[in-house]
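Record 1 of the preview.
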Amino acid sequence: MTATSAAPTPGAALPAATVQVDIISIQSQVVYGCVGNNAAMPVFRKAGWRALAVPTVILSNTPHYPTLHGGAVPMDWFDGLLQGLEDRGVTRVARAVVCGYLGQPAQADALARWLPALRAARPDIQVHIDPVMGDRNDGLYVNEGLVAQYRDLLVPHADGMTPNHFELELLVGRKLVTLDEVLAAARELIARGPRWIVVTSAAPAEAEPGTLRLAVVTRDEVTVVSHPEIAIPPSVHGTGDVFMAAITAALLAGQPLAEAARDAARQVTEALARTRELGWEELAVE
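->
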């Protein structure tokens, strides 16, 4: 006779495992708009990855509107959110961490403590950092102290980074004009820890009219990818957040870096084309 398991006693606890989480996404969160985690999470879902959103700020909207409410997540909360990932076992199963916009310098300090401990316990986990600090249209839009903290505290803990041209200039502390200068600057960062750097809007002064370029840089290889530049209202932000999410999703799926960068650029271009077609003031990711 084959034995059968007895039915569980009503109310008895059943064994359970930690939910499979693929990506921990640490960046901004807005109520209205499509930046930070609001932009990244749809990309992760579409690619079939499970992601958890850890907010660094909670805002009513981006600061480019006439009114703004909310602010940076308090440090006791932020530290607690990171600790909660460990308490629930998420850090034991996640495959990647994405770090984007930070609301205050103390958050960089917290990540500079948390990431090395995570890497020591999980040397296989991927850490992707988008040093969100500004762009050529808006200039610097974070606390000035974050520039040095990204450069000195966070760059060494990244496997890969996706600065735009303006942010790369901030990280190396000088103006960059030519593509060769961009490539040299990217390799300066690689010498400090990352395996790859993808520079968006690279050397815009040299790009063909109506196009933008990505510089995909590793220690030994360079690939330059061109894609269309689509005119959008100045209120539209979040393209870098979509790009980082898309390249992370592709790399987790096993795509080579240059192919992942091309696919990420395609997704950004499609989102911008949708946004223009709909006439929205925010990025149409979905």
